[in-house]
Amino acid sequence: MKFFIDTANLDQIKEAQALGVLDGVTTNPSLMAKEGITGKDNILKHYVNICNIVEGDVSAEVVATDLDGMIREGEELADLHEQIVVKIPMIKDGVKALKYFSDKGIRTNCTLVFSAGQALLAAKAGATYVSPFLGRLDDISTDGLNLISEIRLIYDNYDFETQILAASIRHTMHVIDCAKIGADVMTGPLSSIEGLLKHPLTDIGLQQFLADYRKGNS
Ligand code: E4P
């Protein structure tokens, strides 16, 4: 399972990268705005800065909603850096854009996916990644993990190469459950990754080992 961090915060990205288990970054316009990154030039520079920190894929989202606009923006984003993956919303022109980029060998991440049907369409159009938003489904009392399972089943039925990027991860159990289902990638906050290392018995055990060592070596 690949680990992506879902943020545009450079300090958090550096911290995740330093852990040694980071495979990429996802961003979206809201995450960029949260960091105060505004204006086209600053936004493009920020994507390059992110690419220079991580070794893996960096999703950069288009804001156009028509085919020509998405193609123009997506090509500009893809030209920025070889690590850029163009993030395209699951709308009708988005599906056409996925197909266009797929035919050109430009990698894509189909975002805002909330149903198995949308995920099927994204795979048919040749998306590199599909991003089902499981946390946002959970938020409205709908089982987000069930959607990940449905997509896994459909993709395996037909050997689709599109990778399932479980998005809108909110906590560590989401990561573990997605790994059990077989999602190819998860993207979430740093806390969802760091939560994986925590166990009270590890802390208690370590304290005991160190105390016993000190007794015999003081
Ligand atoms: C996916 O790529 C999105 O950036 C993200 O996972 C959305 O998460 P949220 O629902 O926590 O905003």
Automatic annotation (TrEMBL):
PROSITE patterns: TRANSALDOLASE_1. GO terms for cellular component: cytoplasm. It is found in: Cytoplasm. The keyword Protease does not apply. It catalyses: D-sedoheptulose 7-phosphate + D-glyceraldehyde 3-phosphate = D-erythrose 4-phosphate + beta-D-fructose 6-phosphate. Its EC number is 2.2.1.2. Keywords: Cytoplasm, Pentose shunt, Schiff base, Transferase. GO terms for molecular function: aldehyde-lyase activity; transaldolase activity. The keyword Transferase applies. The active site is at 87 (schiff-base intermediate with substrate). It is an enzyme of class 2 (transferase). One of its GO terms (biological process) is pentose-phosphate shunt. Pathway: Carbohydrate degradation; pentose phosphate pathway; D-glyceraldehyde 3-phosphate and beta-D-fructose 6-phosphate from D-ribose 5-phosphate and D-xylulose 5-phosphate (non-oxidative stage): step 2/3. NCBIfam families: fsa_talC_mipB. Belongs to the transaldolase family. Type 3B subfamily. Transaldolase is important for the balance of metabolites in the pentose-phosphate pathway. This is Probable transaldolase. It comes from Flagellimonas sediminis.
